Amino acid sequence: MDPVKDITPTDSVNSLINQFSKSGGFASKNIAIGVDILRTMYSDRCLKFLSFPANIIATGTRGIIKELVRNKMVDVLVTTCGSLDHDYARTSKDYYHGSFDLNDLELRKKGINRLGNILIPNECYGEVLEDTLQPLLKKLYDSGQKELSSKELAWHLGASLESNSRKEESILYWAWKNKIPIFVPGITDGAVGSQIWLFTQQHPDFKINVLKDEQELFELVNASPKTGALIIGGGISKHHTIWWNQFKGGLDYTIYLTTAAEHDGSLSGARTKEAISWGKINEKAKHVTIRGDATVILPLMISALGALS
């Protein structure tokens, strides 16, 4: 048996992660295991998935996701509609610091939306998205593009930022620039989806073809001998990632990072070991479940890889 080693304070992320691996300390040990799996996955020639929910894109953690995409450290993104909302809106307007304890009735009166401890005024979200998306959709429609997959829509959003002074802050911009697909299976569940619906009121032949996304996902997975995934949070983006990978015998590398518990049987709280029973993660895969806040843990893990240096 290996003895438990005490952690010594350090200003080096790599040193801290290495100490985590020897500390025997619950989540810290799993973080170290996760970093080790990521290092192996990134050095392997496999198809790399990154799955994440929208809420962290409203925070500074967006920058970590953006760097992974900019540095081509991922091959496929699977996320929710809100990620498009927040990423695109933040290229035009700022979001602001708040608190979980603010008076939500007063915020409502002032036209300010609260996402945890992030404040998003109406003019920084719904209003700016309507002002920018309706002309973009009309331009696409007039050019003859009346049916798009969610991936194609995401790339058009990214391409439209080419002249934006804040484009290099955007996940969408770098995904388009590096031709990394973004799949959004729940495309109607957010402000971008609502703007698409609004546009169809005057242009009923404009459509989003989600089955085109599914076909491309199937082809990507089917053509890859090995696949791996860093899965942040749960919900539809998590399930969509593991669902399609069952058709190749399951993921070969998997890291779950979640705050959800498994006692209620939810997918969001389910550990990696449960997915093995479904064939969504290969029985011989390197895998770990890390419990904790992604806004703390993800920057640590990616910094330990040297992706942000």
Describe the overall structure.
This protein has 309 residues and is of the alpha/beta class. Helices cover 45% and strands 17% of the residues. It is built from 13 helices and 11 strands. It has helices at 13-23, 27-43, 62-70, 81-89, 104-109, 126-142, 150-159, 171-177, 191-200, 210-222, 235-245, 272-278, 294-305, and strands at residues 47-52, 76-79, 96-97, 112-115, 118-121, 147-148, 182-183, 207-208, 227-232, 251-258, 281-291. The strands form 3 sheets. The protein has a 6-stranded parallel sheet, sandwiched between helices. A 3-stranded antiparallel sheet has the order 3-5-4. A two-stranded parallel ribbon has the order 6-8. Helix 2 (27-43) packs across helix 13 (294-305) and helix 3 (62-70) runs parallel beside helix 8 (171-177). The protein is globular, with a radius of gyration of 20 Å.
